Inverse folding.
């Protein structure tokens, strides 16, 4: 059942006396002293950050509600989502929950398009409003210094992976070398990881006494974000530019051999 605000909002609370109408107008100021009627508890969060695809909860705490009704409205299109515990939208991701003085709008599988302002309304005359702003973020990871890192043999490989746009830290961060999970207690030794969780999570991979076998593709895999990788080259006294030129020469010679092979096939064809 789809429903938009129109005459419904104008009809809420009609027939109340002048005294109650004046009280409702006073309650439009959330910082006004409490009256016998409903008022919002301003201790709650009015800025909510949700992970993409993870259920979000928008809370509205109303004291002394009495026989009034709480509704949730989406500001973007003035769409009435819920009234009391009833849902007034065909989008079944939305659902109202009630616990004591808390009236919660639950949103399952939030997408970027769901970001914006949501209004909690109480059916006084005029109606009281409490706004909650929803931000939907998608965590991302990044390895500093990429896409290629050149290290001298015997030096320490120090890789830093940061996890951004995450309202909560990842449960774990896994490091891989050439698609294999790095073992910190392997016979190679000298490998350690330090992860500092916070608003921005940082994970540090340290590999002491770098050797040529440590070259390859390293990737950082947070539990709540896509993996990111970096190519590490352990040098045996070579200059990075010389390595790149050697790689380009090898690529060009391989291409030439392939071309000559195709020409031979054409000449031998009947």
């Amino acid at each position: 059942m789809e429903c938009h605000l129109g005459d419904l909002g104008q009809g809420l609370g009609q027939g109340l006396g002048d005294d109650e109408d004046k009280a409702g107008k006073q309650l439009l100021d959330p910082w006004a002293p409490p009256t016998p009627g409903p008022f919002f508890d301003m201790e709650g969060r009015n800025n909510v950050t949700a992970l993409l695809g993870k259920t979000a909860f928008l809370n509205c705490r109303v004291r002394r509600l009495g026989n009034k009704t709480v509704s949730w409205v989406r500001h973007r299109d003035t769409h009435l989502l819920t009234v009391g515990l009833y849902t007034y939208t065909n989008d079944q991701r939305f659902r109202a929950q009630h616990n004591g003085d808390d009236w919660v709008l639950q949103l399952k599988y939030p997408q970027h398009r769901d970001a914006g302002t949501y209004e909690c309304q109480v059916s006084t005359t005029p109606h009281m409003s409490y706004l909650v702003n929803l931000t939907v973020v998608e965590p991302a990871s990044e390895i500093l210094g990429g896409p290629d890192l050149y290290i001298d043999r015997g030096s320490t490989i120090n890789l830093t992976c940061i996890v951004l746009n995450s309202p909560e830290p990842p449960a774990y961060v896994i490091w891989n070398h050439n698609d294999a999970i790095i073992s910190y207690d392997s016979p190679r030794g000298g490998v350690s990881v330090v992860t500092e969780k916070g608003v921005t999570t940082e994970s540090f991979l340290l590999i002491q006494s770098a050797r040529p076998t440590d070259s390859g593709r390293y990737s950082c895999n947070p539990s709540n974000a896509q993996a990111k990788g970096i190519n590490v080259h352990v040098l045996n006294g070579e200059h990075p530019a010389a390595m790149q030129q050697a790689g380009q020469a090898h690529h060009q010679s391989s291409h030439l051999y392939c071309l000559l092979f195709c020409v031979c096939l054409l000449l031998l064809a009947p």
Notes: The chain has two domains: 39-137, 140-235. The helical segments are 7-11, 18-27, 240-268.
